[in-house]
Amino acid sequence: MHIDILTLFPEMFEGPFGHSIIKRAIDNEIVQIELHNIRTCGIGKHKVVDDYPYGGGEGMVMMTEPLFDCFKKLNIENGTPTVLLTPQGRKFSQHIADELARESRLILVCGRYEGVDERVREHMVTDEISIGDYVISGGELAAMVVIDAIIRRLPGALGAEIEQDSMMNGLLEYPQYTRPADYQGWMVPPVLLSGNHAEIAKWRRQQSIKKTAKRRPDLLKNADLSESERQIIEREIKDIKDGYQ
Q1: Domain count, the chain
Q2: Would residue 174 count as lying in a domain?
Q3: How far apart are CA 153 and CA 156, in angstroms?
Q4: Higher confidence at residue 239 or residue 152?
Q5: d(Cα 193, Cα 66) in Å, to the nearest integer?
Q6: Which of 25, 28, 135, 156 lies 20 to 30 Å from 150, alpha-carbon distance?
């Protein structure tokens, strides 16, 4: 997979891309990531990339010309997804990460300041993504989140571990424990020490369902659940409601 990132601050990516899963994926040629500094296409000797908004208002707006000039240098084929990271985009999810991971090439555009000129949205980008309903300093941080989630879905990036990740089955992950089995009287659940893999799998599944019902019930509407598992959810929700009374 090839990912191009259009940004005013390429140096922000050096740390995240130099470690862990992303670095291994780059080293193993599973993904190629190229950073493109929008400011190299800025206007005039001062490489201006933003200006005051027409009609007045606070802040600055990223100009159309530098973004389009930077975009044109990429020699992009028709149909290549070009994603603007913006609070106005569709909310990022595991489903969207899986969708983008199937692409052979992806362009990410990092918004800044008060956003981009609307003509960039209308004539350059094909998609807009938000990582949540809150304000951050720019699209660079959002791009890091999106890229990390995508790379985890690329064949060879994680191996067998990938199918066990939280959210892969639409549920939150079950509780995890490691040594010691007894720490200051806080015990690991006995089933995890039993060696009975069928019972362990059953316990983990039930715990995932209970945790999701308690913390993210919105995820359950799309989860693949049996009738007995739905009964677990009903009991969990009832216990939660009883606890508030």
Answers
A1: 2
A2: no
A3: 9
A4: 152
A5: 60
A6: 135
pTM of the model: 0.87
Amino acid at the residue 99: E
The tokens for 64 are 């159309």
| Percent of residues, the chain, with pLDDT higher than 90 | 82
Tens of pLDDT along 145-161?
Answer: 999 999 999 999 986 55
Whether residue 18 is found in the same domain as residue 132: yes
- Do 56 and 133 share a domain, yes or no? yes
Residue type, 85: L
For residue 156, the enclosing domain spans 2-160
Residue 54: CA count within 13 A, CB half-sphere: 4
Identity of residue 218: D
Q: Residue 238 maps to which CATH number?
A: 1.10.1270.20
64 — pLDDT class (breaks 50, 70, 90): very high
Residues catalogued as catalytic: 87, 114, 152, 165
Distances 152 to 25, 120, 147, 156, 222 between C-alpha atoms, Å: 9, 29, 9, 9, 22
When pLDDT is averaged across residues 21-46 and rounded to a whole number, the result is 97
158 by Cβ neighbours in 10 Å (0-12 / 13-18 / 19+) ranks as middle
3-state secondary structure of 115: coil
The answer to whether residue 143 is domain-embedded is: yes
